[in-house]
Write a structure and sequence with these properties.
single chain; alpha+beta; Rossmann fold; NADH Oxidase; 4 domains; seven-stranded antiparallel β-sheet; 27 helices; globular; binds adenosine-5'-triphosphate; binds ligand LLZGTKA7; P-loop_NTPase; ATP binding
Length: 821
Amino acid sequence: MKYRITRTEVPNVLRFMAFFKTVIAKLATEATSNRCNPFITFVLGGPGSGKGTQCVKIAETFRFAHLSAGDLLREEMSSNSENGTMIHDIIKDGKIVPSEITVNLLRKAIHSSGNHKFLIDGFPRNEENRIAFERIVGVEPDIVLFFDCPEEEMVKRVLNRNQGRVDDNIDTMKKRLEVFKKLNLPVIDYYSAKGKVCKINAVGTVNEVFEKVQPVLAALRCIRDDALDIESSSSSSAAAVDAATRYHNRTKHSLTGGYARGPRGLDWANQPNPFLRFLSSPLLPLLHSPPEPHDDSPLYHSVFSSSLPPPQPFSHASISRLLYDSLSLSAWKSTGLSTWSLRVNPSSGNLHPTESHLLSPPLPLSQQQPSSPPFSSSSFLAHYSPKDHSLELRASISPPDLPLHRSLLLAFSSILWREAWKYGERAFRYCNHDVGHALAAAAVSAATLGWDVCLLDGLGHDDLHRLLGLDRSNPPSPDRLPDRPVRGRLPWVESQHPDCALLIFPFGGTPPSVDYAELALALSRLPAMEWLGKPNSLSKDHVCWDVIYKTAEAVKKPPTYGEGFSVNPFHRSPLISPDLYKDMTVRQVVRKRRSAVDMDGVHVLEKDTFYQILLHCLPSGELGLGEKQGKQFTLPFRVLTWDAEVHAALFVHRVRDLPKGLYFLVRNEEHLDRLKSAMRSEFEWERPEGCPAGLPLYRLARGDCRELAKQLSCHQDIASDGCFSLGMVARFEPVLREKGAWMYPRLFWETGVLGQVLYLEAHAVGISATGIGCYFDDDVHEVLGLQGLEFQSLYHFTIGSPVLDKRILSLPAYPGPGIDA
Ligand SMILES: Nc1ncnc2c1ncn2[C@@H]1O[C@H](COP(=O)(O)OP(=O)(O)OP(=O)(O)O)[C@@H](O)[C@H]1O
Ligand SMILES: O=c1ccn([C@@H]2O[C@H](COP(=O)(O)O)[C@@H](O)[C@H]2O)c(=O)[nH]1
């Protein structure tokens, strides 16, 4: 359904306010009607008749989402939720859980699945269940599969099931059979009378029964409609794209359909340690850079708008600076009750999943900057420890082992568990935002040393795995992963997922030549090296959010050595006036960057400052006549190897002399026509007054959109109390289909790089920013008029004047309070 702006004679601003109100009201009341009607199959039969077994096969063959009511209840039971004990007792007694609980679990699972065809296994169990489902979910089943099985066979199967279920014993089984006959058969009769039941004789082997099921399913219209789709995903790359889009859809938050799956409440006892340490590794302490008044880092605006300082040699001192101004701690915070650290590279939720690793040439000893022998005698690979700003040696590498000359290599990996502990299934998105933040932080810091950076993206996932010596801590292969979240002592959940490697080299002159095939061959020899240090354990118990690891596996990058390594020319970012940045140095900006917790709701941003911030968000910077934004030439976007895919839909609340309303920054002008046709036809696409010539900013509609921005960002005031907030809209499915599922994390990296620019810009002009990972995905798309998956909003941000929480004490980064917080 589309929302239309009513064409009346009222002034534009009122008209738009009315439009937003209508949208909010509609979104709030509409549960399912703006989604395409799901195809619902109820799968019924006595206990042990083989419903679950057949559902797994049907789901695999015909791409249904399989929702087992029993499994959802068992999951709820073991999640320590308030209803857990009650559900346990009812299941043990073979009775039926109150309808409201089961139907709500099903409703949430339907909304978060991203599929439109559902097998609802073992539900409805009684008439009350049936009526509640039809009332709450608002649909009737399209078909009911009834697995008819003799009682003795069902008893035999259940008693042999051996899955540790509390109800797989003869006493409960007898009660369940009674409940089935008394309460479940009437539901089957009800649907038989409506002609919806397809009865299947469940006697025979699993495959024999499936032979009977298959023709029934194959004849369904929804299956015939999807047949083309199934064919197109038969190749592994198409299947990987499907896996990425399924994960993406499944982890959407929805204003009316609930939040993506995550833990209910935080398990503080198992909060992952934010500091990975390689115990017993030789340690190289790094130097701490001098703060004001001895701050020797360049002026903030100069690294974007003029050429970089002359390149420094790679040394203990310069590498110390690189890491200090990009990945080290920036402060400790304490409320008295808890103490935690902040880092220069931001992290959604301050959970810091990103780990960094440096491959460096030997760092010679000097009297002023002593280095210990393992670091000075050969090239080495080290893990960076932000807690004490030091390098932990992982392996010494003899020179011919790696064909990298005149360059450093900085690699990132993610401990997915750190984010998943708090955010559950959506965490894979957030980890990748953080990779983007770290990439941009490294690019800016390197620039202050006269160094350029570029992703070594020809390497594949497995190459990075070898580079980081991660072979001993692999997650299980996807087919051995559980098919639902599982809690327990699962040390592999702490393993690092390799993300990317960055080449760092002197700016100017000829960039180093990289022969990917030669490099990959050298990397293949590394696992045989002696690896030092044993990683500390981060939590006692874990939750395996299975879908994260399955998705991480599906979106692994294959090697693309043939494409070669090339570095884009450097372009300046347009500068309206250096005065806007008040002589801030890069170090001042990056080390003072904080995520605002609240915005004041009153500060008005000057228009020039607003335009300047957006000019620094452009990937191509200053261009000649007729050239368009798109190529990533400017700092820090140049670290990325693809053309810009991410745009920004801006909710402008308080910018002097700029009408409030919805605006759009087109960061790749090749996409402009597609964007215009994909978005609401009512949008104005007007260039705002005074907008700098090279800034592709458009006003879509005027009006006060504070309430809308707040609602869309999970009802958070911070999105409405800033001067402006934004949703980063990426070209999505076409990118995955054209290039591969491995672009899925990369789109999030790009949003992280853009987010980092927003953070730095905000601080450089004296205000603040916050990355917002919680927003209602499809409701944002609905407001913009975007349908399908061509464009998706991947990250939100708010920029404004922060309100400081005076109860929080700020402590220096070093030396810290000596705790693992
Ligand atoms: N056709 C079959 N022949 C023999 N064993 C089977 C057959 N189908 C399923 N089984 C086995 O019987 C047991 C019960 O099957 P399943 O769990 O699929 O039944 P169900 O109807 O989903 O049961 P419940 O309602 O108790 O969850 C399992 O151990 C399964 O492997
Ligand atoms: O809709 C439902 C589904 C299940 N239950 C309870 O769970 C057990 C086990 O269910 P299975 O489908 O056999 O896995 C069942 O006996 C009920 O106690 C329910 O209450 N409502």
